[in-house]
Amino acid sequence: MSKNGLKVFFKILKRTINFSNKLRKIQIPAIFISGLFVFLFIFIFQPYGLDNFETNNNILLIAAGYGLIVFTVLTISYIIIPLIWKSFFKYNFWNIGLHIAFLIFNLAIIAIINIFYDKLTGFYELKSSFFLNILHTFSIGLFPIIIVIAIIDRVILKTKQSEKIASQITIEDSGNPSTQDTINKPIIILDNKEEIIFYEKELLCFQANDNYVNIYFLKNNIVKKKMVRITLSEIEKQIKKHPKITRCHRSYIVNLDKISELKGTKQKKVFRIKAVNFLIPVSRSFSKFILEKLETKLK
């Protein structure tokens, strides 16, 4: 691995984990999927001599046992123990490196329980040594660990991006000059035929329209609409330097500064922009941080 690759790797390990509601929601599905993965892997591939067992029924039961062990250990570690030992499981002090160490510890516990389970089923006799038993468990458990860490890292990045955008909303309310500089920077949209330039303070929203996008913006306090042949995802890439212009729905990107009203239920919210005559839907996955900041600002 190159020096730059190592730097990125260690940077990821140091990322703080704040087990917000978003991360807590994925814990139980992740635990279930880990147990299911182990069961399916062992039942389908029958590694380490398991295919020497006489009947498929034996293999099915043994594989189910391994999956149940994984599910039980992870449930105790991630659900039950944190409820009892709260002082240790203050997840906001954890980072990804510490979480990897905790996962490896869980693998070691699973490996030890597997040895007793192997002896109970008679499968232990097919394995060469105590250390190979441990190695087999780690080799199967490595893939779920990589998947879990990748998911957590993605959630952390999305949460930090949301916090950054939400802080920008607060900063602008306090009249921070650096935010005003961002507002005055031009937005440049490139489609196949032309270069469209306007300022952040002029933009209202982008609206997907089949293979086109409608751009709604202000010129001399008059609402203008321009249709360009480009995808909303491509526009999203081109406006990365403008954090307050963000995607709120698969069909809409909005300027958070132009939102005049936030309405709807907890499950289904919409934005209103005074200058346009339609409501803008908000995806259920849209950041709660931003919604809270907007609600505070609009009040």
Oligomer: single chain
Helix content: 40-55%
Shape: elongated
Cα end-to-end separation: 52 Å
Describe the structure.
- This protein has 299 residues and is of the alpha+beta class.
- It folds into two domains: 169 residues, no CATH class; 120 residues, OB fold (Dihydrolipoamide Acetyltransferase, E2P) (Beta Barrel).
- The chain has eight helices and twelve strands.
- It has a five-stranded antiparallel sheet with strand order 7-6-5-9-8, with no helix packed on it. Strands 10-11-12 form a three-stranded antiparallel sheet, with helices on one face.
- The chain starts with a helix and ends with a helix.
- 22% of the residues are buried.
- About 4% of the residues have low confidence.
Helices, strands, pairings?
Blueprint lengths: L2 H11 L2 E2 L3 H25 L10 H29 L9 E2 H26 L8 H44 L3 H8 L1 E5 L4 E5 L3 E7 L2 E8 L2 E7 L3 H7 L6 E5 L2 E4 L5 E4 L4 E4 L6 E4 L5 H11 L1
Helix pairs in contact: 2-3, 2-5, 3-4, 4-5, 5-8
Q: Which descriptors apply to this entry?
A:
299 residues; elongated; OB fold (Dihydrolipoamide Acetyltransferase, E2P); 3-stranded antiparallel sheet; 8 helices; alpha+beta
Question: Could you provide a short overview of the structure?
Answer:
This protein has 299 residues and is of the alpha+beta class.
